[in-house]
Design goal:
The complex is a heterodimer of chains A (375) and B (67). Chain A is built from eight helices and 18 strands. Chain A is α+β, with helices and mostly antiparallel strands and 375 residues long. Classes of the chains: A alpha+beta (375), B alpha+beta (67).
């Protein structure tokens, strides 16, 4: 009976790109005497540091004859096109054409509003062209400016054939942490409100669960891994992490973020700072942070493998142990409509805690059986 | 979904439970109507509201399917 078969509705990815702050990269990688090019938002951007020390972002293609400004040079505060040396300022205005008596009126290209927080460079994307409202800014990490944390360790990976909604879906996907990331979530809760979306996660590891140790289900505190992860807008996830090994708890902040390249590809970036461990020098602290990020990066590559092979699905079939995918997507939709078209359902507070009892019980038994087979 | 009014501030939310440990809470009012909200982390459930939900479960005003 075909009528009883569930059909996948793949839908189509939105044409526009999400309204919000998007991290392009670390300032330390971009603040030199050269222009840098980044494919993003369906075009190419040029980023450079002017003589005034500020990072500036424009559309990379010169409005004169289409030259690529990121292949040009930095001249004072401006970027010069490699084709005819037209000089563009960070405000998007053409400042000078060295061979011309005057600059044509209305010689203006698209300038992207920028923000630097804790050494991270963001640009504001808004299809309606409005400036960023103050209440959607990016939070700084408390103590970062005072040297309490290591410097950033950072990496990125291209996701070539998926819309970035795939990475957002992970926010509510309790079970994939077991199957993809070698975790065993025992506590899992989401909250959506306004432009922020939070995931509370606590759990243990496969290795620890396989020993048969008793697991406290439904407790956020006291677990081996504890995570408090918040999306500030559509693309920038701040994950406060606590990993406990015996008496030692390592505190870190993991950033997972992305910028769209096209509406079917995106750059996934992830970086970490770790609260410096007492009694260790900076080099050792940096090394530990680097190792932690490498392990996390391996996990992201597993996600990418899934995304490369899966289909887009607008009507996922869910069980009670799955998180609130539809409510999450309702929240995410606010970034793809005009501000005037945001409806209350997209931004009203919604809280959802998963019952992990059955999952933890099943997973621990499975891990213990595997362990017994090894012996 | 079942309406639950917070005994502290009077805000009404809708609550459903798929099991004893699973809870969904949909707010309709602006959550700043909760006097504790400003002091809580964004992901924290208001403790007064949690108490009111627990009472509603105990009094049978919220259906909890047997697991």
């Amino acid at each position: 009976m075909t009528s009883e078969v569930r059909t996948i509705e793949a839908g189509t990815a939105p044409e526009r790109f999400a309204r919000g702050w998007h991290l392009l990269g670390l300032a330390r990688e971009l603040a030199d005497s050269k222009p840098h090019g980044i494919e993003a938002f369906g075009t190419k951007l040029v980023i450079w540091q002017g003589a005034d020390g500020e990072l500036k972002v424009l559309d990379a293609y010169c409005r004169h004859m289409g030259g690529d400004l990121s292949q040009g040079t930095v001249e004072g505060d401006n970027v010069a096109c490699p084709f005819h040396s037209w000089r563009w300022g960070g405000d998007g205005k053409c400042q000078q054409i060295p061979y011309a008596r005057r600059v044509p009126p209305r010689a203006r290209t698209r300038a992207w509003p920028t923000l630097v927080v804790d050494g991270q460079l963001f640009v504001w994307n808004d299809p309606e062209g409005n400036p960023p409202p103050a209440e959607v800014t990016i939070p700084a990490i408390p103590g970062f400016a005072d040297g309490e944390w290591t410097d950033w360790v950072w990496d990125q990976t291209l996701v070539p054939s998926s819309h970035c909604r795939e990475v957002i879906d992970n926010m509510v996907d309790m079970a994939h942490f077991y199957y993809i990331h070698k975790g065993l979530p025992t506590y899992f809760k989401n909250v959506f409100e306004g432009h922020v979306c939070t995931q509370y996660y606590a759990g243990t590891t496969h290795e620890a669960a396989a020993t048969g140790l008793p697991i406290e289900i439904g407790e956020y505190e006291g677990q081996q891994t504890k995570s408090d992860a918040t999306y500030w807008g559509p693309s920038y996830l701040v994950d406060k992490l606590w990993n406990t090994h015996g008496d030692l708890t390592i505190e870190s902040v993991l950033i997972t973020c992305h910028y769209p390249i096209t509406n079917n590809s995106f750059m996934l970036q992830y970086g970490m700072v770790m609260k410096k461990l007492p009694g260790m020098d900076d080099a050792t602290n940096d090394m530990i942070a680097g190792k932690m990020l490498n392990m996390i990066g391996e996990g992201f590559l597993e996600d990418v493998k899934i995304w490369k092979n899966k289909t887009r699905i607008d009507n996922p079939l869910l069980c009670e142990e799955d998180g609130p995918v539809y409510q999450l997507r309702r929240w995410y939709e606010q970034f793809y409509v005009d501000v005037a078209d945001i409806i209350p359902e997209m931004v009203q507070r919604f809280e959802f805690e998963i019952d992990t009892t059955k999952a933890v019980d099943f997973w621990q038994k499975e891990l213990m059986e595997k362990e017994a087979q090894k012996a | 979904m079942h309406p639950v009014q917070c005994s502290r501030c009077g805000t009404t939310v809708e609550v459903s439970k798929a099991s004893a440990a699973q809870t969904s809470i949909q707010w309709y009012d602006d959550s700043s109507s909760c006097p504790l909200r400003a002091e809580l982390a964004v992901g924290d459930t208001c403790p007064s509201l949690s108490d009111s939900i627990r009472d509603a479960v105990l009094e049978g005003r919220i259906e909890v399917p047997a697991s």
